[in-house]
Amino acid sequence: MDQSLQNLLDKEQQQLNTALTSYISELDMPNRLRESVLYSIQAGGKRLRPLLMKLTCQGLGGDPQKVYPAAVALEMIHTYSLIHDDLPSMDDDMYRRGQLTNHKKYDEATAILAGDGLLTNSFHVITTTDLYTDQEKVNIVAKLSKASGLEGMVAGQYLDMEAENQTISISKLERIHHLKTGRLISFAVEIGGLLAGVSSERMEILKNYGDYLGIIFQIQDDILDIEGDQTLIGKRVGSDIDNEKSTYPSILGLEGAKQYKTKYVNEAVRCLKEVGLANTDLALISHYLSERNQ
Amino acid sequence: MDQSLQNLLDKEQQQLNTALTSYISELDMPNRLRESVLYSIQAGGKRLRPLLMKLTCQGLGGDPQKVYPAAVALEMIHTYSLIHDDLPSMDDDMYRRGQLTNHKKYDEATAILAGDGLLTNSFHVITTTDLYTDQEKVNIVAKLSKASGLEGMVAGQYLDMEAENQTISISKLERIHHLKTGRLISFAVEIGGLLAGVSSERMEILKNYGDYLGIIFQIQDDILDIEGDQTLIGKRVGSDIDNEKSTYPSILGLEGAKQYKTKYVNEAVRCLKEVGLANTDLALISHYLSERNQ
């Protein structure tokens, strides 16, 4: 990875971990439940979404510090979704990022409640900050609940499970991942723009950029499940094939998937140019997402 | 039950069911997931919380129709909590209100996602209505997420499970039910007051009234698990004893629990007097909650 991007990600991880840990630590809640929440919050996420939000806001002339409440809320929702997706009745995963999944470390009921609580409190974080106007708060809650709810991420996870053991078309696959992964990545970029006060025209381009990043992220995820290094990814390689999941490589072939990914990287870069962000670290991120090995 | 209260509850059920069904039906989401959400939404809840919100708002001079977005959101959160509480790893219930629980009718993964989605979209309902100012929206989301999150209902459900097979003190029991049931009932009353624009002094009394109602509701729930009619309640009687759960009767004895309940009914009625609501249907509700047989 490019060293300056690595530095950015490291710094962002530190800032986010501090903000998240301090928020959770100050809540008046049962100790073991708090431990379980902190376990998943501190499990070493890349904090990619917060970094996207911050760089977009900054690149468009906004105050980068202003993104924090929305970024913290977004990471809480992302973390809840991972905890619930890993459950036995869902993807039944034992490890995530090289550590036991929440329900394996604690128990299923605690994992479900930790997820429910993270989801619920994410909206509390946004509505109780001093950094946003009421109008901004309402806008952010409306967009976040739509992106992650029954028409967004929840629908994506449902369709993803429904598609197991089925051969699906590339457009169906794209729809699933747009909902499951793309919507929250797009939200990150969109809120970065919103907090910088950009025009609605540029906002549309930002949303497309976010969508493309989501697809790139997912194609690379699928590729890593075939040719990735287990010790770097922190989870078992080959699980998609074992679970007979439709993936970009299973539909397009490995080389076809790589070409498809390149097409979207070019689209993403084009969007950045159109909104005047081509010479920012966001371009590095588009390439990183495409080439990452973990 | 008093006939006029019965009429009120019937009418409220109809209005709420229509509002909830129409909201869910218009969402762009997978069909089977929608069916599962509607299954639990239409499972015959009493819609007590919305009625409390409406009567409080109306009694204090507000427009009763204004409560609907908040009432719909509240019922969505109440419904999600029932779906998740019934899961095998939680209370492992097969029936609720005489029907199969959501995970028995569909499957565990669908039930978890239906719950997650109802919770998430409840905040979307509030932030996208035309009936509230931005300030009201922010206030309602902040209060609802606090009442139902890691410091509220989620903590209550966690502590409730932790207390299984344990003998706990009456104050611990009260804290559990305050969090698990009381917080949302109190929210209903509080938002009724907020939308009627009451003073902060009267708001405090309303919150106490809501807390007392929550306790009355729970004591009667415990009593019904001993001397209730299974066909009326729609779930098995005696499950608390089988699960060795601490309840008001197990700690205070059946008669002691009934006396304790009477004390709280008197407190609730006193609160109503203090805020000038003694001669409204809210007084009927306090007594109904105390004497209900289902």
List keywords for this structure.
homodimer; Farnesyl Diphosphate Synthase; 294 residues; 73% helix; mainly alpha
Compose a concise summary of this entry:
Two copies of one chain form a homodimer. Chain A is mainly alpha-helical and 294 residues long.
Descriptive account of the structure:
- Two copies of one chain form a homodimer.
- Chain A has one domain (3-291): Orthogonal Bundle (Farnesyl Diphosphate Synthase), CATH 1.10.600.
- Chain A contains 15 helices and two strands.
- Chain A has helices at residues 3-25, 31-41, 48-59, 68-85, 102-105, 108-128, 134-148, 153-162, 170-196, 200-227, 230-233, 239-242, 248-252, 254-274, 281-291; strands spanning 95-96, 99-100.
- The longest helix of chain A has 28 residues, at 200-227.
- Biggest sheet details of chain A: 2 strands, antiparallel
Q: What strand line-up does the widest sheet of chain A have?
A: 1-2
H-E order of chain A:
HHHHEEHHHHHHHHHHH
CATH superfamily of chain A: Farnesyl Diphosphate Synthase
In CATH terms, what is the architecture of chain A? Answer: Orthogonal Bundle
